[in-house]
Amino acid sequence: MMILYHTGFQEIQYPDIHHGRKNADFGQGFYLTADKEFARRWAKDRDGEQVILNTYQLETEGLSVEKFQRDRKWFGYITANRAWKADTSEADVIIGPIANDIIYDTFGIITSGILKPEEAMRLLLVGPEYQQIALKTEKAAAHLKWISSEVLNIEELKKYRETVMSEQTIYQMQLADALDQMESKYVHEKQ
User: Fold this and answer.
1) How many whole angstroms separate alpha carbon 24 and alpha carbon 78?
2) Considering only CA atoms, which of 73, 50, 62 is closest in space to residue 152?
3) Which range has the worst mean pLDDT, 46-55, 147-156, 171-180?
4) How confident is the model at residue 85, as a pLDDT?
5) 62, 66, 87, 124: least CB-packed within 10 angstroms?
6) Taking a C-beta distance cutoff of 8 angstroms, is the pair 81, 111 a contact?
7) DSSP letters along 27-85, please?
8) What was the pLDDT predicted at 52?
9) Is residue 152 helix, strand or coil?
10) Segments making up each domain of the chain, as ranges
11) In what order do the strands lie in the sheet with 51-58?
């Protein structure tokens, strides 16, 4: 059993696994996290709308669960999903790292095919590692039980946004260093 969280603009007692973007890291599905602080920190806000943190319980017994690490298998899976290729996983639930280029909204080119796969993989390993859980099937959604919801207040969201901005600055510096190292290596190999 897992306790999971999802933030949005409404209480979601019965999530729709078909609502999410098909080209997200783990393909179409309902995305959650087991990290309550992460769910709060990455909550989006919109004028005139409440931000709601939903809490769930997922019973994984009887479900096919695939777990990814930050490795080539993970990289291949997310790049295929971002390129709108058919999902290769048969799992009901996918658990694994979020690609930091998405959560920090940096390049978007990292897994676009512009970079060589090994270069893109190296850049995706930069920065902190946050886990996401994607419910991929109706069977998984049926195993998810909504527990409660709470409204996040404006002051709290502002505090978390400042934390995210600080993390983003650190991430961008680490990414710039990694790019400089790649460029230096490229220039050295050309000489």
Assistant:
1) 8
2) 50
3) 171-180
4) 85
5) 62
6) no
7) -SSEEEBS-HHHHHHT----TT--EEEEEEEE--TTS-EEE--SSHHHHHHHHHHHTTP
8) 95
9) strand
10) 2-190
11) 2-8, 51-58, 144-152
pLDDT at 106: 65
Burial 37-50 (b: 16+ CB within 10 A, else e): ebbbbbbeeeeeee
Buried b (16+ CB within 10 A) or exposed e, 159-188: ebeeebeebbeebeeebeebeeebeeeeee
CB atoms within 10 A of CB 119: 16
The two tokens of residue 39 are 């769910």
- Cα–Cα distance measured from residue 56 to residue 123, given in angstroms and rounded to the nearest whole number: 33
Instruction: Check if the beta carbon of residue 25 is closer than 8 Å to that of residue 78.
Output: yes
Structure tokens at 118: 């090994």
Q: Which of 186, 187, 67, 176 is nearest to 123 (CA)?
A: 176
How far CA 143 is from CA of 1, 2, 50, 87, 157, in Å, comes to 10, 11, 27, 21, 30
The span from the CA of 180 to the CA of 14, in Å, is 46
